[in-house]
């Protein structure tokens, strides 16, 4: 799905065309230039970009506008309010999550957070996501309760297994989002189904999309 990982561009464009056809997308998805930022873009039916804009989330109230994020271990998060009047797609790696990309997106959406439902897609699981002291400090310094989402590696000093889905679920719950669903699928472990940057290094990307239908 991605144009930035040295895949053949024509193959990528063909894949995107196949997805548009098979998923019966109402319009071309608005692809982002994801750089682990805290930027969430509002989209409308008149939104047009010459180049993919730098952002890691988008949201819209417009019908038939497709929000999309690409991942290969990071968290793809899709949001909608219960009325289906506002939707969002978020790409959250640990850097974006630490910079509050999820909170900033939810707070930008013109709906009550208690009205939101969230889905967390396939991402690297706590069993496979080893991080260093810097990542631990980035979250624990923000909220001491985040300690529960880091499990110290007994054989390695200053190494932890980090629970990204747990961290984002906790953050959303603190914002008032109670209906949170998760795929429970690990992108690292499921080699036949998912790309994984941590597993393979040079790899493709998966796309998660959401839109409001007529």
Q: Give the class-level CATH name.
A: Alpha Beta
Taken from the alpha-carbon principal axes, the silhouette is: globular
Largest sheet: 6 strands, mixed
Q: What is the strand tally?
A: 11
The share of residues in extended strands comes to 15-25%
The proportion of residues forming helix, as a percent range, comes to: 10-25%
The CATH superfamily label reads CNF1/YfiH-like putative cysteine hydrolases
- Spatial order of strands in the largest sheet: 1-2-5-4-6-10
Distance between the termini: 26 Å
- Number of structural domains: 1
Count of alpha and pi helical runs: 6
Spell out the helices and strands N to C.
Answer: HEEEEEHHEEHEEHEHE
| CATH architecture annotation | 4-Layer Sandwich
Indicate the CATH topology.
CNF1/YfiH-like putative cysteine hydrolases
Mean pLDDT: 95
Family: Belongs to the purine nucleoside phosphorylase YfiH/LACC1 family.
Keywords: Hydrolase, Metal-binding, Transferase, Zinc
Protein name: Purine nucleoside phosphorylase
Organism: Thiomicrorhabdus immobilis
At a glance:
With 214 residues, this protein is of the alpha+beta class.
Textual characterization of the structure:
The chain has helices spanning 9-22, 94-98, 101-108, 133-140, 164-174, 197-200, and strands at 40-43, 57-60, 67-71, 75-81, 87-92, 116-120, 130-132, 150-152, 159-162, 179-182, 206-210. The protein is globular. It contains six helices and eleven strands. The mean pLDDT is 95. The chain has one domain (9-210): 4-Layer Sandwich (CNF1/YfiH-like putative cysteine hydrolases), CATH 3.60.140.10. The longest helix has 14 residues, at 9-22. It is of the alpha+beta class and 214 residues long. Strands 1-2-5-4-6-10 form a six-stranded mixed beta sheet. It has a three-stranded antiparallel beta sheet with strand order 7-9-8.
């Amino acid at each position: 799905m991605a144009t930035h990982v040295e895949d053949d561009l024509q193959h990528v464009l063909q894949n995107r065309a196949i997805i548009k056809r098979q998923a019966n997308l109402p319009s071309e998805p608005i692809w982002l230039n994801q750089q682990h930022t805290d930027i969430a873009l509002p989209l409308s039916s008149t939104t047009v970009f010459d180049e993919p804009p730098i952002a890691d989330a988008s949201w819209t109230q417009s019908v038939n506008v497709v929000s999309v994020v690409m991942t290969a271990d990071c968290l793809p998060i899709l949001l909608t309010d219960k009325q289906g009047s506002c939707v969002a797609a978020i790409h959250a790696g640990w850097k974006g999550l630490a910079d509050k990309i999820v909170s900033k997106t939810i707070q930008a959406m013109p709906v009550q957070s208690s009205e939101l439902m969230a889905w967390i897609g396939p991402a690297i699981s706590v069993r496979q996501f080893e991080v260093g002291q810097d990542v631990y400090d980035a979250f624990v310094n923000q909220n001491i309760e985040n300690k529960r989402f880091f499990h110290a590696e007994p054989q390695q000093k200053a190494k932890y297994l980090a629970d990204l889905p747990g961290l984002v679920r906790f953050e959303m719950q603190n914002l008032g989002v109670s209906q949170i669903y998760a795929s429970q699928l690990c992108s690292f472990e499921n080699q036949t189904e998912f790309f994984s940057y941590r597993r393979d290094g040079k790899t493709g990307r998966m796309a998660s999309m959401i839109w409001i239908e007529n």
